[in-house]
Amino acid sequence: MSALLFFLAAFGAIAGAVGVVALRDAFFAVLALVVHLLSLAVLFLLLRAEFVAAAQVVVYAGAVMVLYVFVVAYVGDSARSLGQRLRRGASSRGSLRLAGALLGGAVLVELLIALLGSGLKAIEGYGAGYVPGPKTFGTPAYIGNLLLTRFLLAFEIASFLLLIAAVGGVVLARRRGGLGEESRERLAPLDLVRPQGTGTMAEGVGGPLFVAMHANGGVTEEHHNGVAESARQPVAVGGPEAGGPSGAPETPEGGW
Amino acid sequence: MSIAWFLAVSAIVFALGAVGVIIRRNPLVVLLCLELMLNGGNLALIAFSRMWGNGDGQVLALIVMTVAACEVCIGLGMIVAIYRRRLPIDVDELRELQG
User: Fold this and answer.
1) How many CB atoms lie within 10 A of CB A96?
2) pLDDT of residue A215
3) Range of B79's domain?
4) Which residues of A touch B23 (CB under 8 A)?
5) What is the pTM of this model?
């Protein structure tokens, strides 16, 4: 039974890996990777790594693959046009592809020599003894105990790494200024000088703070508004004024 | 099944991932093939962990999964940034590190 399960899962894992490498559409490559990960989780279960198998299914095949599908759907069109461009310039790529496959075969032979030809007696066996139980090898309790005692430092470093990666992802993928007009406008320093009387909740409700502000500062508020408007003038009014004279001959053209 | 079979599968998966990293040009697929290589390493780690009856390899496999998740996060963020700048999504044409 375990041999049958092993061969099924191994076939699924290798077929999924071949699919990832060979399929042209990135979306189908992601789906092949999901097949590969699920088969690999079965292999982990056969190796008595229950917690890692569950984490593989939930985190990898679930969350990470959803992220991939999302980005493939976002970038999808350009990837497809890339495939068409690839076919056009495929003649010079054949030798490179062959060289890559040869290199991969060399890596495989080397790995097999290193792993299977190592002469370790234990490789031929079924592993150390295993007694099922609530706290035995590979269960969540066992892994959690290890993570919080012997590998506490690695655990904390991994959490920091996740934090850094989350911040880095946000910084890399955010919308930058310079692409559209509105983002540049939003970042203008003059917008930071907000005229008094706009935008706070106390003014909207007419709270005591607003009443006090009006009671003693009516004149200063006017003054402040004037300053803000005159400071804003070169930016806000300059556009239509500069566009006015040159744009005036164009208006009949547009009227035609 | 003896441990050697699992190690053979892990070596095959790792080599397939290496081939994919070398021959594919879409950075998304290159990231997927990196995942394949990490998973081959994970399978070997867990097989050796079973061989010794010791949980250290499984903890290391969990850390590798964390690192893979971080790599996906950064890599996909970079791909989205490349796409936003209307650059070609092709590792052969993205050879120069320009701002």
Assistant:
1) 13
2) 66
3) 3-84
4) 21, 96-97, 100-101
5) 0.72
